[in-house]
Write a structure and sequence with these properties.
By secondary structure, the protein is an alpha+beta fold. The protein is 22% helix and 35% strand. The protein is built from two helices and seven strands. The longest helix is centred in the first third of the chain and has 21 residues, at 35-55.
Length: 144
C-alpha cells in the first residue's frame, strides 16, 4: 500500500501525541524500533474509542492485527513529543487497513500501516464489518 501521503502531516487526520520516555531509548540514545509499536497501538486504540463513542461498536467482534509494517525514516530522540496521525487507507468486507505517519518537530520519523480483521468473538472466524462502521471508516479515509 502506498504510504507516501503520510510522509507529510495532515491536520484532517485523527491524531494523538506521545511523550518520548527515557525508557523508550536504546543504548544509542535513539528511540528503540520496537517502541514505535506502542505509539501506533496508543493511536489505534484511541481511534477505536472514538469510533465506539460515535457508533457503538458491536461487542460481539474483536479487531486483531493481521499485518503491520513500519518504514523508519530517521531516529526520534529524547526528550521530545511524537504526533501519530492515522487514517483508513482500505476498507474491505472483513478487514480494514490504517495508514500512519509519526512526526516530531522536524517532520516525519516513520510511516506505517496495519490491517485489522473483524473477528467473531465466539467462533474466532472473520466477520463482515458492520455497514455503519465501514461507511464511517471510508468517510474518515476519504475513500467514500
Amino acid at each position: 500500500m502506498n504510504l507516501d501521503p503520510f510522509l507529510v502531516s495532515d491536520p484532517n487526520r485523527f491524531r494523538t501525541r506521545s511523550e518520548i520516555r527515557y525508557s523508550d531509548l536504546d543504548p544509542n540514545e535513539h528511540v528503540n524500533h520496537a517502541r514505535y509499536l506502542i505509539y501506533l497501538e496508543e493511536a489505534r486504540l484511541a481511534f477505536r474509542r472514538l469510533l465506539d463513542r460515535e457508533l457503538g461498536l458491536p461487542e460481539s467482534v474483536t479487531w486483531p492485527i493481521a499485518e503491520l509494517t513500519i518504514r523508519y525514516r530517521r531516529s526520534a530522540e529524547y526528550p521530545g513529543v511524537l504526533t501519530v496521525e492515522l487514517a483508513p487507507i482500505h476498507v474491505g468486507r472483513t478487514s480494514f487497513s490504517l495508514g500512519y505517519g509519526i512526526y516530531d518537530d522536524s517532520g516525519c520519523v516513520a510511516v506505517a500501516m496495519n490491517r485489522s480483521v473483524c473477528v467473531d468473538r465466539e467462533t474466532s472466524r472473520p466477520n463482515p464489518i458492520a455497514e455503519n462502521v465501514a461507511v464511517r471508516l471510508r468517510e474518515m479515509g476519504g475513500l467514500a
